[in-house]
Amino acid sequence: MPIRYYLGVDGGQSSTTALIADETGRVIGCGKGGPCNHVSAAEGRAKFFAAVGGCVSGACSSAGLDPAAVTFASVCLGFSGGAEDKDVYTRELIRSERYKITHDAEIALSGAVAAGPGIIAIAGTGSMTFGRNSQGKTARAGGWGYIYGDEGGAFDLTRRALRAALEQEEGWGPRTQLLPFLLNASRTKTANELLHRFYAGVERSIIASYAPLVTAAALGGDAVARSIIDEAAAGLARYVRGIHKQLFGNHERVRVAYIGGVFQSEPLRTSFIDGVQKSFNAEVGPPEFGPAAGALLEALRADRNMSALFQVPESGK
Predict the structure, then answer these.
(1) How far apart are CA 265 and CA 261, in angstroms?
(2) Residues 91 and 14 occupy one common structural domain
(3) Closest CA to 25 of 317, 314, 290, 289
(4) Nearest CA to 302 among 48, 115, 37?
């Protein structure tokens, strides 16, 4: 019988990764591509085809497969920004017996807990939390964007830091190192100049890149920065509690993973873990595997290849 092949794709805002496994769950190919989260305009659609098509072709080449001839047993693709507008294009690009096209939080969770039940907190530029129980029921909290949500994300941290700097500038807020830190990093002279620069169309990712300054100030003993760190961690832990309440019993031990650049902050990570563990019986830690491996595990699950499902890929961390 011919070998059955499986494909998992993590399509994100900054890059796209594809992994191919054989029917035993062994990873045999990996490919990389550019961002693929926007497809609405003609240019976005072209970038989507280039990113996804390119990384899948790269994975096929490294696996010794002909990308023009292979038909997968099952594929799973998880996309930042949702999957609804990418379904048709995906089926044009990739031939498969089965398709699962979903959002990036689901594949991140599957990789983090090796396709089992659990909860994942994601905090990069923005934030959201996603969970799944042993019955397959899922729930989400957050992820509603930088205006109405994303508490605990990097943009939110910078916004809070700037607000604290403005309060000091106005003369009524407590003194904080966040003001000189932000001015120095942005090469501006006043908080007003900094604020106008941010309002002048600076990309959210650039604003979010100032978030590590909050950790630096907190580690230096700045009480205002420490308060911001703790508030952000509490917001992320609150999301996790919301997921837990919907999906899990009070006495059930639940795996909780965290992923994203915000969690590189040691004081925020510690505060988050403490907040979760005080709320329910939780095993909190970093992800076991990355989102691309999670997508591959979901492809195996969709084909009911349960024998390979828990032979977790060694790639895609």
Answers:
(1) 8
(2) yes
(3) 314
(4) 115
SS3 category, 27: strand
Quote the number of domains for the chain. 2
Q: How confident is the model at residue 214 (pLDDT cuts 50, 70, 90)?
A: very high
Q: What is the domain extent for residue 299?
A: 6-114+289-309
> What's the angle, vertex CA 56, arms to CA 51 and CA 62, rounded to 5?
125
Gap between the Cα atoms of 105 and 12, Å rounded: 11
Whether residue 80 is found in the same domain as residue 30 = yes
What mean pLDDT, rounded, does the chain reach? 88
Of 37 and 221, the structure prediction assigns the larger pLDDT to 221
Q: Looking at the structure, do residues 192 and 261 belong to the same domain, yes or no?
A: yes
In a domain? residue 12: yes
Domain membership of residue 132 (yes or no) is yes
Q: Where are the alpha helices (DSSP H) in 220-265?
A: 223-247
Closest CA to 290 of 109, 102, 154, 117: 109
On whether residue 317 sits in a domain, the answer given is: no
Cβ 173 vs Cβ 180: under 8 Å: no
Rounded CA separation 215/178 (Å): 10
In a shared domain, residues 134 and 229: yes
For residue 257, the SS3 value is strand
Q: What is the pLDDT of residues 91-137, one digit of tens each?
A: 888 899 999 999 889 999 999 998 889 999 999 888 999 999 999 99
What CATH number does residue 304 fall under?
A: 3.30.420.40
Residues 300 and 273 occupy one common structural domain: no
Rounded distance between C-alpha atoms, residue 222 and residue 154, angstroms: 18
Residue 232 lies in a domain: yes
Sign of CA dihedral 259, 39, 155, 147: negative
Distance CA(123)–CA(187), nearest Å, equals: 27
Whole-structure pTM value: 0.86
CA–CA distance, 16 with 51 (Å, rounded to integer): 6
